[in-house]
């Protein structure tokens, strides 16, 4: 018996957890089956018509009453009549069905059943049928009011089935009744994912390339959780909250995963949108439950991703966009952050790429004491990031990581990971044995400009316009010293564009007025070339004009680079001006800004036209070469346009 009992145990569960199996197992299934069987059997046996045959008035009059077989007639609830047969006639061969052949019949009857319309009519018929019978053979009618359990069950049974069905659904969803595991009854509980000590997460700080300053600050938090006495003995207090701020793809969530892998303490991760539900008060309840769990497992770390979902400013600007549920969740979050004691051992990490919309009360010291800014990686950091993402790839010997880092300025870590994956897909599509340098270049072009659309059919006239348009950009860019270095020119449709001019952007921290002006002239080069060559302009310069207009307004209204308006700026770093219905300046000032922007763009356009007229021969040669081979690389550009003076000076300095 002991061996048999051991075989029935769950071998995959620890000994101390075998008694904690969910209670909704096979035992409850048998209970439901027995209960349903009992209801069905009870309804059959309690049915007054079970084992009886329903007859008509003619059969009662001609076959039963006329032959004297009826012992009594019982009218039940004034609805139907039960006909009892005399015992001497029960097994008579002339009967249509004997008692032994009936499944639920009994010798005490009734043996027949008949529905009556009304009691008075039934009595009159019975009286007329027995007028000529002797008094000893006449059958009297008896009346009885009887409670029908079948009728009651017919009402209760559907409700019982519905209740059993919901109990089954709840057990399936909750894995154990209406207890703690049921989401329908736990929507106020925190849905945070918890990683216990020695988590399975394989991410650590070695997997994060670049971001040295950010890693140093986060590692200090992790070190405090591991060795708190090092800091507390000097009277230092570790920050309660750490806010990770940066553009999308710079590694905020990856940094939090590395903390989970390094800290070796319970790590609660949750998205800001998971706090807010359609039920009022659920968000605040989840915040309380989350911090309660974290305090129970202290020291621990809470990570809230995309905290701007609940941490938006509560100012008057958002009066038309009020959300009481989100604000109550934010208030509860502020209360919990204030409620930490100095030795609680719970640290909150939060990430957002929109710090301008966060409430000031959330960012003040004492709640989120430390703000860590994750910026786009520099060239050296991009090289390190490429090294991380190139590890799992099978690379060719001609892959130059330095060149890849140089040709990807402004790329985030997520962009670099996408380039590496796209290059591997391209190499696999071409059935190559290893990923080569040209695969990375093709992946970069595809991510920036979109996929080549070689099947897109354009007319010869449109192709010529596109060639001169792109040649105009290239010639102007080549002869202006403050424009980024030109890499190649293409008239192959890619993405939404019919042609493209590829640059190698320089990494600048500030931009001067002359650099702004040269960039505007380079953007207007395509439209100016169309006007000079065809004496007509097209809609192909839409993207260029949009970019030029935004740059001009930024120069005048934000950076204070206009001589007439002077050093004033209407830029709002808090982002609240965008939510206001009006502008932060008067109508007179708006007219002056518009006029200065128009003058600035007009001067840049005239300068661009004059430059293209001066180098008209180069424009013509480059356009014809584009029409011939569709893509012009830098070597061809040097051959047509000559050595660029700016790049020659840089090479000599190097």
Automatic annotation (TrEMBL):
GO terms for molecular function: ATP binding; ATP hydrolysis activity; ATP-dependent peptidase activity; metalloendopeptidase activity; zinc ion binding. InterPro entries: AAA+_ATPase, AAA_lid_3, ATP-dep_Zn_Metalloprotease, ATPase_AAA_core, ATPase_AAA_CS, FtsH, P-loop_NTPase, Pept_M41_FtsH_extracell. It comes from Cerina litoralis. The gene is ftsH. Residues 238-378 form the AAA+ ATPase domain. Belongs to the AAA ATPase family. Homohexamer. Residues 1-20 are annotated as: Disordered. Acts as a processive, ATP-dependent zinc metallopeptidase for both cytoplasmic and membrane proteins. Plays a role in the quality control of integral membrane proteins. The lineage of its organism: Bacteria, Pseudomonadati, Bacteroidota, Flavobacteriia, Flavobacteriales. Its EC number is 3.4.24.-. This is ATP-dependent zinc metalloprotease FtsH.
């Amino acid at each position: 018996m002991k061996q048999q009992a051991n075989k029935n145990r769950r071998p995959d569960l620890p000994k101390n957890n075998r008694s904690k199996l969910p209670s909704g197992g096979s035992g409850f299934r048998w209970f439901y089956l027995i209960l349903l069987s009992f209801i069905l059997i009870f309804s059959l046996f309690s049915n007054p018509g079970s084992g009886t045959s329903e007859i008509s008035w003619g059969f009662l009059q001609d076959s039963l009453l006329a032959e004297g077989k009826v012992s009594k007639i019982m009218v039940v609830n004034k609805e139907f009549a039960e006909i009892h047969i005399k015992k001497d006639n029960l097994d008579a061969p002339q009967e249509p069905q004997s008692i032994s052949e009936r499944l639920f019949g009994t010798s005490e009857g009734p043996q027949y059943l008949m529905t009556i319309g009304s009691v008075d009519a039934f009595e009159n018929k019975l009286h007329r049928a027995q007028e000529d019978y002797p008094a000893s053979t006449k059958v009297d009618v008896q009346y009885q009011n009887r409670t029908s359990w079948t009728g009651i069950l017919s009402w209760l049974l559907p409700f019982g089935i519905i209740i059993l069905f919901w109990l089954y659904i709840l057990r399936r969803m909750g894995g154990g009744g209406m207890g703690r595991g049921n989401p329908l009854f736990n929507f106020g509980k925190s849905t945070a994912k918890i990683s216990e000590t020695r988590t399975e997460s394989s991410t650590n700080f070695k997997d994060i390339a670049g971001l040295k300053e950010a890693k140093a600050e986060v590692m200090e938090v992790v070190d405090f959780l591991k060795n708190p006495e090092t800091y507390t003995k000097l009277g230092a207090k570790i920050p309660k909250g750490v806010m990770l701020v940066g553009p999308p793809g710079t590694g905020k969530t990856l940094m939090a995963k590395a903390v989970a892998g390094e800290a070796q303490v319970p790590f609660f991760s949750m998205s800001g949108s998971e706090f807010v539900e359609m039920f009022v008060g659920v968000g605040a309840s989840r915040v309380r439950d989350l911090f309660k769990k974290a305090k129970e497992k202290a020291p621990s770390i809470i990570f809230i991703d995309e905290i701007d979902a609940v941490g938006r400013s509560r100012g008057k600007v958002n009066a038309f966009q009020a959300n009481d549920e989100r604000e109550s969740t934010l208030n509860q979050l502020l209360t919990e952050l204030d409620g930490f004691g100095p030795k609680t051992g719970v640290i909150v990490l939060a990430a957002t790429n929109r710090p301008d919309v966060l409430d000031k009360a959330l960012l003040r010291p004492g709640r989120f004491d430390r703000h860590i800014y994750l910026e786009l990686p520099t060239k050296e950091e991009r090289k390190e990031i490429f090294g991380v993402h190139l590890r799992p790839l099978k690379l060719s010997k001609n892959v130059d990581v330095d060149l890849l880092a140089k040709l990807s300025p402004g790329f985030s870590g997520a962009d670099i990971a996408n380039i590496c994956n796209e290059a591997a897909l391209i190499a696999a599509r071409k059935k190559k044995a290893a990923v080569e340098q040209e695969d990375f270049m093709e992946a970069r072009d595809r991510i920036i400009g979109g996929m080549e659309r070689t099947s897109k059919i354009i007319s010869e006239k449109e192709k010529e316009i596109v060639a001169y348009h792109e040649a105009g950009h290239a010639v102007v860019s080549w002869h202006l010293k403050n424009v980024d270095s030109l890499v190649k020119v293409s008239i192959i449709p890619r993405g939404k564009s019919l042609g493209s001019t590829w640059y190698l952007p320089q990494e600048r921290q500030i931009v001067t007025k002359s650099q702004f002006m040269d960039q505007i002239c380079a953007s207007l080069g395509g439209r100016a070339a169309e006007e000079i060559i065809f004496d007509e302009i097209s809609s192909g310069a839409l993207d260029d004009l949009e970019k030029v207009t935004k740059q001009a307004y930024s120069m005048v209204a934000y950076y204070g680079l206009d001589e007439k308006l002077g050093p004033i700026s209407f830029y709002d770093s808090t982002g609240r001006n965008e939510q206001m219905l009006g502008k932060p300046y008067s109508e007179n000032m708006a007219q002056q800004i518009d006029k200065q922007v128009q003058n600035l763009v007009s001067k840049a356009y005239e300068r661009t036209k004059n430059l293209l007229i001066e180098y008209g021969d180069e424009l013509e040669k480059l356009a014809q070469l584009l029409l011939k081979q569709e893509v012009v690389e830098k070597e061809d550009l040097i051959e047509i346009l000559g050595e660029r003076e700016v790049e020659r000076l840089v090479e000599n300095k190097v």
